[in-house]
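Researcher: Predict the fold of Acyl-coenzyme A thioesterase THEM4.
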Amino acid sequence: MGESKYFQDHMPENVCFGCGHNHEGLQIKSYWDGDESVCNWESKEKYHGWSNLMNGGIMATLIDCHCMGTAMADAYKREGRSLNTEPEYRYATGTLTVKYLKPTPNTTVELRARVMEVKGRKTVLKCDFLSAEGVKTAEADVVAIRVFDSSEGKETVFKS
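Model: Structure tokens for Acyl-coenzyme A thioesterase THEM4 follow.
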């Protein structure tokens, strides 16, 4: 069996509600499509905000976790190595600014993220949130901070 293309499959011990190995969580999966990362996710009725509309907090969680996985995968890509290699990196949210543009039907959605800038441990991303019909219903600016580097053997603190 070959290496999984999904970023989250290369995050051992991740129990995050959005992107981790959490049977009650969202269990998102992200992968590369050229220079963009993509996450296709099918919602359920329990994620309604209003009848048949997705909850904004769930949308923010999807964006957050998709972008943290993208920052990690981008770091590996910039170093010219696969996701299953050492050292392991993990990212946490520095900032997350979501603009909700239109109501999002509670169906399948697609997220597309792009890395805009990398400076030290900081990765700046843009993310578009698309409905099943391809309509952009939200967009986000995200800053991801590398908080773990297994070569250092401990959590690290971001210094600008």
